[in-house]
Amino acid sequence: MNDESSGNRKSVLLDEPRVIVVKDRLGDGNTDIQSLPTTNTATILASVKRSGMQLGGGQGGLKSIDQFVNRLKAEGEVVNEDVMKLVSGSGGTDNLMSTNSTALTQKSHVKKENLHLRIEEKLIVQAGRDGGLESMELQGTMFAQAITNEACEAKIRVDTSMCTNPPNEHRPPAQLQTHPNIDKKAFTSTGWIQIKPGGKPFPNGQEVGILRWRFQTSDEAALPITVNCWPNEIPGGFEVNVEYELQDPILELENLVMSIPLPPSTKPPLIGNCDGEYEVSPRKNQLDWHIPIVNNENSSGSLEFTLKTERGAQAEQFFPLKLNFGSNKSYCGIQIIEATVSNQDTPINFSFESNFHAEKYEIS
C-alpha cells in the first residue's frame, strides 16, 4: 500500500499493476493482505490493468482466473493456489478488503475447555441518507458445547441485567427465550441455565443453542455507530464527505468497512483526507473505506474525496452505503458468571467467545 505524506492515508487502486501478498502474521493462520508493486516477486493473487489483461472478460481480456494463473506461471511467477481460493466465486479482487475483515472477525482461536460457550449477535439496520432510522433489529443466540461427559450435565449462570435493563435508555429491553429443553422457571428466578427435570443432557461434542434474545427499535440513538454521507455537486462532478461516530463507548468494532457506490467516471476519485485506508474498485464502481479499530479512543473519523463524473450523474448514485464490522464483545452485554455440574455444584472449566457483527447495515 502507498503511504502519502499529506496524511494518514493508504490506498489500493485495482487498475494499477499490483501484486497482492498474503502474510501469516503470527503463524496461527491469521493473515494480512498487502498490496505491493509488481517489481516485488511474491505470492500473487491478482494483477489487473485497465488496458490489456483484465479478469472477467472484455476485448483481449482473459476469461477466467485459471487462465490468468496459468499465464503467470508461464511467465515464471510463483502462484499460491490456496490464496487464489480467496477470490474463487467472489468476483475477483473487488471484495478483497471486506473478505479479509469478515475472515478476521469470524475465525476463532479460542482453546476449548470442558464446556465451550459461544455468543453470536447479528445486527440488521436500515437507515435513511438524510438521517433517521427506519428499522434496527438485533438477534442473539448463546450456544453450548459439551466437550466431556461431565459437561453434558452442566448448568450455566449468566448475568442478563444489561440485556433486560440496558444502560442506553434509547435501546429497548431485549426479549429472552430459553430452549424448550431448558428449565425456564429456574432461569427466570435465578439466572441459571440448566436442563429441565427429565430433559435430555447436552449432546457430547455437538454445539446447541440454549438461549436467544431479540429487540427491535426505530430510535436512531440506539445505533452502535452512525454514518453521514454528504455528496455535494460541483462543476464536472461531486465532492463527497463521509464521517462516522461511535454511539456506544463500551463497544469496540473491528475491521469497519464502508462500501460507497460511485457514479460512472473516467477517473478514480481524488482523496483529500482519509482516516484509515481506502480501496477503489473501478469494475464495481465502488470505494471501500476501512478502519481497523473503532472504540472510545478512536470514536470518529472522516473521508473526503472528489469525483469527476459523466453528465447526468446524481447524488443518489452514492447510495446505498453499506457497513460491515465485527466485535468480540456482546452488544447486549450478556455475561457468563460460572458453570457447574448440575446437582453437584462442582465447577467446570469453560471457555467463552463472543461475536457481534453487522449482518446487514445499509444507508439508502
From TrEMBL:
User: What is one process in the GO biological process aspect for this record?
Assistant: Golgi localization
Q: Give the principal location in a single coarse category.
A: cytoplasm
Which keywords describe this protein according to UniProt? Cytoplasm, Cytoplasmic vesicle, ER-Golgi transport, Golgi apparatus, Membrane, Protein transport, Transport
Is Protein transport given among the entry's keywords?
Answer: yes
Taking every annotated instance into account, which residue ranges of this chain make up the domain MHD?
Answer: 112-364
Membrane-topology descriptor:
Peripheral membrane protein
Alphabetical GO CC annotations of the entry are: COPI vesicle coat; Golgi membrane
Q: Does the keyword Membrane apply?
A: yes
A Pfam family this chain is assigned to: Adap_comp_sub
Q: Where in the cell is it found?
A: Cytoplasm; Cytoplasmic vesicle, COPI-coated vesicle membrane; Golgi apparatus membrane
Question: Transmembrane segments in this chain: where?
Answer: none
Per the record, the similarity remark reads:
Belongs to the adaptor complexes medium subunit family. Delta-COP subfamily.
Q: How does it assemble?
A: Oligomeric complex that consists of at least the alpha, beta, beta', gamma, delta, epsilon and zeta subunits.
- What does this gene product do? The coatomer is a cytosolic protein complex that binds to dilysine motifs and reversibly associates with Golgi non-clathrin-coated vesicles, which further mediate biosynthetic protein transport from the ER, via the Golgi up to the trans Golgi network. Coatomer complex is required for budding from Golgi membranes, and is essential for the retrograde Golgi-to-ER transport of dilysine-tagged proteins.
PANTHER family reported in the protein's UniProt record? COATOMER SUBUNIT DELTA (PTHR10121)
Question: What is this protein's name?
Answer: Coatomer subunit delta
| Record organism | Schistosoma rodhaini
